[in-house]
Amino acid sequence: MPALAERMSRAKPSAIMVVAEKAKKLKAEGRDIISFSIGIPNFLPEAHVYEAAAEALKRDSGAYGSNRGSDALLDAFLQHLSEAGFDGYERRNVASGVGAKHVLFNLMYAILNEGDEVLIPTPYWTSYVDIAEILNAPQRLLHCGAEQNYKLLPEQIAAAVTPKTRVLLFNNPNNPTGMVYTPAEIKALAVELKRHPNLWVLSDDIYNRMIFDGLQYSHLVMAEPSLRNRVVLIDSISKTYGMPGWRVGMIAGPPEIATAMATLNSNHITNLPEVVVAAAIAAYLGSQNKPQVMCEAFEAKRNEVMRTLDAIPGVKCPRPQGAFYAFPDISVAFGRRHGDSLISNDIDFCAVLLEKTGVACVPGSAFGEPKAIRISYTCKAAELTEGLRRMAGFFAELSE
Ligand SMILES: Cc1ncc(COP(=O)(O)O)c(C=O)c1O
Asked: How far is CA 395 from the centre of its chain?
């Protein structure tokens, strides 16, 4: 067989999907599995979304659509942005793609020359590194450990930027940690970023409607409007509206970047399907009751997760304030045994936990932090309670 492109040697399947697949396989074999692994919201959108999709089917144009996204979709997104506190964006600033993952790929493809450096606060969402790898962009990982609440500090940016640095990947609220930056923390980062005029910031804010404890959502361009010409906001309907399979991601940024997205779309996807676009518009413009109710439900689940984790001796978990993840440092278990099984690292921990209790979590090393594991807590309430009970029991059974 003729060879594949060299870049494919750097492309690898998502580590999260590997765990999720293993849990699924064990379940199919009849094991009693509780999955805390995959980051799906686990709820469906409201009826008006399905009605809009059904209506669009009846009115199918049978034609290709806009590469950037239909005007109606762009306007719906602009209204959504305005409700979140972003003003001054117009159609020329926004564009669509097949989910946030696709727009992130396109953004990095549009911005990075081979050899350009990418700053990635760590723990990170796995695809940031995977996409940078495919594009052969060296990554500089900025370690943000539990001791700094998994949050990036301005001095880390100051120390890391070189003439080769082109992009900072910023994620707030964060996957895998669930941490949310306060307005004061965002302001401090924005002030530092002003000092680096050649740096793009890709701000992945797809969880921005899932914030707890009454904490105010803030963003770099709200704190420093002058950053608008190089900060790109990324949004998605996947998590907020319970629509991960519908595949709609949006960006807002300078007109040049939105046009670059449309040009890339014109060369692969052409356009989003009409039915999907109608559903996304309905999600953005319709009742926001479901996202609100789900956010409250996730906050209650976060409380339950934290009650369990806080009670386990030696486990440290900065309290998440958004999204639907917790990221406990479980390194207290390293060097200890569960029955005959020695736990040397996070990968052993997750493998033994799954084997012995049927609870599936993702090892932190998938996110660049091997001292931790990720718990995604969107499963049914009874499953969450049972999974946490098993996890606490597992820790209690560890021996030296
Ligand atoms: C931080 C972050 N960004 C982007 C994505 C991808 O979202 P989408 O479903 O819109 O591609 C995810 C999905 O898990 C995510 O957690």
From this structure: 28
Q: What are phi and psi of 158, to 5 degrees?
A: -55, -40
387 lines ligand 1 (CB under 6 A): no
Instruction: Please choose, from the candidates 87, 174, 113, the residue with its C-alpha nearest in 3D space to the C-alpha of residue 369.
Output: 174
Q: Which domains does the chain have, with CATH numbers?
A: 6-44+290-396 (3.90.1150.10), 61-285 (3.40.640.10)
Task: Take atom 13 of ligand 1 and give the residue whose Cα is closest.
Answer: 39
pTM: 0.96
> Among 25-29, 44-48, 155-159, 378-382, which stretch is predicted with the lowest mean pLDDT?
25-29
Q: Using an 8 Å Cβ cutoff, are 211 and 180 in contact?
A: yes
Residue 226 identity (one-letter amino acid): S
Residue whose token pair is 């949050």:
151
Nearest alpha-carbon partner for 134 in 326, 314, 5: 5
The pair of structure tokens assigned to 5 is 């492109």
Q: For ligand 1, is residue 37 a contact (CB within 6 Å)?
A: no
List, in sequence order, every residue forming a beta bridge with 234; answer none if it has no partner.
204, 251
Q: Per-residue confidence at 15, pLDDT binned at 50, 70, 90?
A: low
Q: In the numeric block, which tokens belong to residue 281?
A: 């518009």
Q: Would the CB of 235 count as within 6 Å of ligand 1?
A: no
Longest dimension (CA), the chain: 67
pLDDT in tens, 216-268: 999 999 999 999 999 999 999 999 999 999 999 999 999 999 999 999 999 99
Is the Cβ atom of 125 under 6 angstroms away from ligand 1?
Answer: yes
State pLDDT tens for residues 320-336: 999 999 999 999 999 99
